[in-house]
Design brief:
By secondary structure, the protein is of the alpha/beta class. It has 13 helices and 15 strands. The protein is about 40% helix and about 15% strand. Helix 2 packs across helix 9, helix 4 packs parallel to helix 5 and helix 10 packs parallel to helix 13. The protein is globular and about 65 Å long. Bound molecules: pyridoxal-5'-phosphate. Pyridoxal-5'-phosphate (PLP) binds next to helix 4 and helix 5. The site of pyridoxal-5'-phosphate has 15 residues, from helix 4 and helix 5.
Amino acid sequence: MSTMVSTAPPILANDFRALWREIGADAEAALRRVGESGWFILGAEVREFEKDLAAFWGMREAIGCGNGMDAIEISLRTAGLQPGQRVLTTPLSAFATTLAILRAGGVPVFGDVDATGALDLRLARQLFEAQPDLRWMVPVHLFGQCMDLPELAALRDSFGLKIIEDCAQSIGATWQNQPCGSIGLTAATSFYPTKNLGTMGDGGAILTNEPDLATSARQWLNYGQSEKYVHTLRGLNSRLDEIHAAILRDALLPRLASFTLARRQIASAYREGLHHPNLTLPPASTPESHVNHLFPLYLKGNRESFMDHLRKHHIVTGIHYPHLIPDQPAMQGQCFEIAGSLPVARRLASSEISLPIHPHLCAEDCARVIDVCNSWKP
Ligand SMILES: Cc1ncc(COP(=O)(O)O)c(C=O)c1O
């Protein structure tokens, strides 16, 4: 095996060239259509993509915006977050989740996570019980796994919470047919290239069943403009480009179901094939509740040595996430709170490794990843 793998082609975390081979013709046609239309910002492409995305997601309205981070900030602003209000969120996510809360004027309160890596809703309940002034929440459906929506809804109703769901990694994940993102006032998502509905650049969207929030979000993302040259809010410039909307609509959204199926097949092959005693997998989930944006595993032993072993066999791995958000240098001097010592989040952050998972990873490559992982000598 070792002689074969030394010349083996690399297995990437994401294969954007393979993606282009599949979608290139559709993306070029979409680009041409936008060019020929002569309309590049907030036109028919964005409107039509928003309709398709809302229908796919099973939500009343989708509003395109510049990126996932802005989608969270705009959601919090439209939902009425006031400066200084405390927002329960997770320490284990992209920094953007917290940055959006800070930019909207909120004070992040970091709660610990459970074995799936998402906010521990049992601990969250205790915090809401003990702290009547904690009534905002930004949970993240991490790694593509839909959180327990009935429990999230129960928390919302018991404590009158305002919830913005970070669905940047979980488009299409459901809990017993209910879409992730449908418990909160809005769902915020990202079309960053690595995401499961990633475009060829930046993009994001807000989804909501509340027409008033949709109207307000549209205003926030366009300089706070209520009608041409009338600005009733000091808003952002955060528009989804016509080009990205066209590519998403023609080339990517129609393929999302088959891409998700491919990701689920890889995840299930990994679950079946990985047998190393030092590797732990996250708790199993029902297939429809997970879109397998990432495939995390947890390592007992030296993470660098394991990653190096895979690197020598030309397999790219990642870490999601090596540092907890409250530990980031940029948090120094910021107003935030930590509920407890975050033992589970710290354990996951220090032991996680993400294996390659993307729609163009073939069965042979998947088998190679499994063999190489199982052959690691700690
Ligand atoms: C969980 C989560 N939230 C928010 C974001 C921010 O999305 P964007 O990069 O589009 O701003 C990301 C992307 O990294 C993410 O993974």
